[in-house]
Structures are given as C-alpha cells and as structure tokens.
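Amino Acid Chain and Its Fold in Token Form
===========================================
Purpose: to set a sequence beside its fold so the mapping can be learned.
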Amino acid sequence: MRMAVIFMMMAFASGCGNGPAENNADLILVGGHVLTQTDTAYPTPPTAVAMAGGRILSVGSDELVLKNKGPETRVIALDGATVIPGLIDSHCHLYGLGKSLAQIDLMGTESPDQILEIVARDATKFAADAWIEGRGWDQNDWEIIEYPHRRMLDEIIPDRPVFLRRVDGHAAWANSEALRRANITKDTPDPEGGEILRDDLGKPTGILIDNAVSLVVEVIPEVGSEETRRRLKLAVDHCVAHGLTGVHEAGVSWDRAQIYRDLAETGELDLRVYAMYDDQPATLENAYAEGPLFTGNGMLTIRAIKLYADGALGSRGALLLDDYSDRQGHRGLPVTPSDHMREVMTKGGNAGFQICTHAIGDGANRLVLDLYEEVLGDLKLEDARWRVEHAQILDPADLPRFGKLGVIAAMQPVHCTSDMDWADERLGEERLAGCYAWRSLLDSGAHLCYGTDFPVEKVDPLAGLYSAITRTHPDGTPIGGWQPQEAVDAATALELYTAGGAWAGFQEKESGRIAESWLADLTVLEGNPVTCNPADLLKMKVTMTIVNGVVVFENN
C-alpha cells in the first residue's frame, strides 16, 4: 500500500511549472516560508507544502498547493513561520537520553557540593533496592577542577550503591557500596582501555575512566522491557519537541534493537531512527546472521556497527599522538584492540554494514583512518560511507584522508563550544589547528553530518546551528569565535543538520530536502535559521514537528 502511494505521487507530481496533481492531501501547510534546500526553480518563493501517505505531494504557492485540498485534508496556517527539511541528529544516544530523563540530572552542576545536594534530595525517588544513578557532571565546569572522591558520596548515602556518570559517559563517580558490589578493590587491576583512579595508598577513589566504567555497569541490574519502552518514549517526546525528525542512535544491543523494532512496527515510534549495533559478541553474532534491518514503514533502519577507538578529551581518555599538555607521560586510552576492530570492520563490511568508529584524539583518528584504508582496500566495497564519530582532534596531515577515502566525519558543533575553554590546556596551542575542523574537512572534499551526542550535550539542534556558525558561547564570547576559520555559514550548517545526516544514513534520495515524493519529515520554526541573527537561534521556538506526514509535536 505504501509503495502504491509513492508510485502514484511520483507519476502525477509534475514540478512547479505545471502544477500539482489533483490528489487529496492528508495535511497542507500554507502561509509560510519553505526552505527546500533543492535547486528547483519556483516562479515565486514557495510558501506551502502538501503531504499524503507520509510523502510530500506538492511544494509551491498557497494557491497551487491548495489544489490538493480534499474534504478531509487538515490545513494549517503558518503565519509566516519557516518550514525546513526535518532536522536529523546524526550522532546521539536515544536510550541514554531516556535513561537520563528517568534518573538524576546533573547537567550544569557547578561543584561536587551541589551534586551531593541533588543526589540526597532525589535519592528518595528510587526504589529502596534500586541503584541510585545519575549523569551530567563535568569537573571542567567547577571552580576547583579536580575529580571528587567516593567518601563524599559515602557521607550522604553509605548503604546503597550510587553511580554518577560524567557528562560524556566516559567516566563515572561511584560510592564505596557501588565499588563493593562490582568487587573493585585496591588489588583490582586497570582493565585494558580503562583506568581506576587511586589515592596515595592505592585505594580506588571512586572515579572510573573509560573501560573501567564497565566494571560497575556490568553489575547494575537491567531494567525490564516495559521500562525500556517507557524511557525510549520519554526520549522520543523530548526530541520531537526540539524539532528533530530523525536521529542516528550510536549503539544498541540486540535485545534493545528488538524493542525498537516492535515500537516501529506497531506505529509507536514517532521519530525516524537510523541505528548502529554495539560491539558486543551476542549482538554482532545475531547481526551478521540476520543482516541489516529495515522496517516496512521506514521508521527504523539498523545497518551500521559502532566501534570505539578511544575515550573522551574531558577525562583525558582521548588517544593522542603525543602527551597531554597537562599530564605528561599520558596519551589517553586505546579502548579497543586494533586486531578486534579490524576483524569487526571486515566481518561487518562483508555482511552489508556501515562501520562507525568513535575517535576523538588525533592518535585515534589516525589509527581508524589507517584501519579503514587497509580494510576498505581489501574489501573493495562500493559506496561504503564508513564514518568516524566525533573526529574532534585531527593532525592536519590526516584532514584530506577523509575525502580521499570517502569517510564521513560525524561531528557535533556543541562539543567545540563546550570544550574550547580548556582544550588548549589539554592539547597546547600547536594541536589546536586540527580541532573541530569543520571548514577544513569540507574544503578537502569530505562529507560531514552534524549532531549533538546527547545526552552528553543538550538535545537542542538550534544550539548546534549557533555553535557551528559562531564558535562562541551563548553570550558571544570569545569575540569573533574560537578558531573562527573553522566556522561554517548558516546555510551550510543547516545542510549538515539535514541533508548531511540523510547522506550519512544512505537516505539522501528521499530525506534531507523538501521535494515532491520525498519523505514528509519537516521542522517548522518561528524564524528563518539561515537569514536570522545567529543569536536569535538560541531563543527561536519550534512551532511544529512533522514525521512521516504526521504532526508529532505542536507548540500551541
């Protein structure tokens, strides 16, 4: 039925010059400004869009598009609002967002004492036998920039496990009871690709870095499927309220993927999801056997695999080519052995999966590019579109390799503006030339796509556009922007948040632009994100979010 609707629309859609087909639309938007991001020449700037069967039926003037109005068509007057292709967050953790919404929110906390107050207050919301979990702290935002100690948590909650993940998820703060349940003691060795911070006596301080975090995660009881579904729905509602019509979910287990599939197939998933399987034996075994997943309604695609090459810059886990400027003798953490990554790349590529590898430091990015060049050369895949997730710190010599190898850089503008106040302390001035190098990558011929990495950062894509254009804090500092030569213009930023994400998910022939027969995924904003003053993006409201031709959010 769905394909019949598509073929009907494609057969009758006749372009702006000859007028639309006389088909009844499900939904028509009129009286707006439509940014199609196409080369189509319209007689006058388009103001209206008609949709039917989850696809765009017509684009053009109000008069032209209203010819598709039928007795049951809903017509919405936009009153000058701007319609753009649906915003796509090309790197996020959707379930992680749902989990964070269901737990203690520590985003924006300014000190350990503030965190302790919040944890003591919110601990009563958890069942008596449940772990107390939270996420969002960042020691780089504190007046005294140093890691806290487990004893601080012990003083307020001594008899229940407390586990608080850092904003990037690559570090965590645990109390003594959490360490006890994970059997982490003075004698526990650092796991490969991880670090247990210790005091002068060799005892764990409660701070765990990268793969050491997993030592605790593995003993936390999994929630049931109903709670998982609830958390996912919380996350989806949060996303569409911020104008997102699609996301790239960076890592799902096999079991969780089945819940995504059920939500999609039963019509309960109001957000288009392109997902990556995580690097776990059981997950990959099933993925290789079944191959990529495409649901019939197009709401869920799983055709990628997520690997990790290193940790995060904020916790000094990003793998560098040379020592950290503020920690001599330390170059970060290679969290996954190269032989294992090579094996997954080879098996995954042969099974039809896109490979997406987390790499933040210049050492990790070079390692991944070397592996990609080797494996892609052996596999000889056509249009592989393998990705580097983050690509934050690059040696200038590696910049042109993305375009040459056809590797996509999946980047997050808000990471730049979150990190820029202290990045020079970690890296020194000389390495800043390859940091968050959006413009240099584009100029070298690379494909980019934008996202936020939420819940590491806030969901808001308009804040991402602002960061991409200005490279400043919301207050406009530093004046002129940090490393301003790497900023992009507003039209390019929007392209990377829409068509860029579509390309990275192999959906560029039906998503990321507003054109007849394309997916009816649209974001409606009260202002024009391309022509406005960049500062206006931070207060611009999302008027409406439309996914698959259905209004899933309205700002009444």
Observations:
- The mean pLDDT is 94.
- The chain has three domains: 2-80, 98-217, 225-512.
- The longest strand covers residues 244-252.
